[in-house]
Amino acid sequence: MKQVYMDHSATTPADPQVYQAIKPYFMASYGNPSTIYSLGREAKEAVEKAREQVASLINAQPGEVYFTGGGTEAANQAIISYMLRNRNRGNHVITSAVEHHAVLDACRFLEKQGFELTVLPVSPEGLVDPDDLRSALKANTLLVSIMHANNEVGTIQPLKELAAVSRSAGAVFHTDAVQSVGKIPVNVEDLGVDMLSASSHKIYGPKGAGCLYIRKGTRIKNYLHGGAQERKKRPGTENVPGVVGFGKAAELARQNLLERNETLVYLAERLKDGILNNIPCTRLTGHPVHRIPGHVSVCFEFVEGESILLMLDNLGIMASSGSACTSGSLNPSHVLLAMGLSHEIAHGSLRLTLGKNNTEEDVDYVIEVLPGVIHNLREMSPLTPHML
Questions:
Q1: pLDDT digit string, tens, across residues 179-214
Q2: By CB atoms within 10 Å of each CB, which of 86, 249, 293, 322 scores lowest?
Q3: Contact, 107 vs 118, CB < 8 A?
Q4: Catalytic residue among 107, 281, 299, 325
Q5: Cα–Cα distance between 163 and 151 in angstroms, integer?
Q6: Which pTM was predicted?
Q7: Known active-site residue 281
């Protein structure tokens, strides 16, 4: 049976060059980077090289990049640590209704600690209106956290404008860029962000490695305690293989970004048209133009997303229904609800995210079998009108 992987927003396979770069740091070059003998210095040099590679991808200074255990940790560190460090100057944090739970739950944690939280609405395409942000800003606003690109529907936010609005009011701006770094051009200087979180395994690097960019002069409280690693911002012995893999993945992403995106845009357009033209009562979710390359997200009326995934899996197609981090939940996507979709329609979501190894044959196979899957499920659904 044909196997088609279309869930690259959940995770990506490690690039072969990343795998080769990592291997020595499990056995031959296994030293602790904090030690002063040659084996440790070798590991330390590898970590610093990776820091330069990641910094180069986002146009940051190496000293502004701090390695973490992943994107969720980085986002929590940015939001919670900054608010705790600066609570003497204010207690208000702003985010949006379509954020990843790494951001939303961190903000809600702060709310339980007595901080004030504002959650901004979004348009039907998932966009935050800069005027809504401008209206929400207060004298006591410390931090604004709005994602660069949405993991469920692929919408890219007008981040440069949002960051400018935030900073003009004296608030620091953090962005969850897990879905954008390495997929579209990300330049922290051009965007004007103060903090940015990213993850390795979304760009063909290993799982368990991420980073937090902190603009020089932005002060945050130590998130963890117990060592001097990462200039005391993230104590604990570094995950050297993970960091090295992240660095190599960042280097490859920088080299191949434009060429890869051209292919992904073409394949995604072919896939989107094939679905919308062959399956009635289907709607594209997210912005039709300003979206991550290779990202196709749709909702099918009268069916349920989990059933779609199970039937597709039986046919060798791996996809998702919203975020992989909430795949165990029976609730409809908070992102789709925030965009104005009803519970019934939101339950019928499907996310197909392509990667560098997908082909036209993969796309055509999905277009060939998906209409039958939806037809069969609708025939079993009591919600389906008789005319379909």
A1: 999 999 999 999 999 999 999 999 999 999 999 999
A2: 86
A3: no
A4: 325
A5: 20
A6: 0.95
A7: no
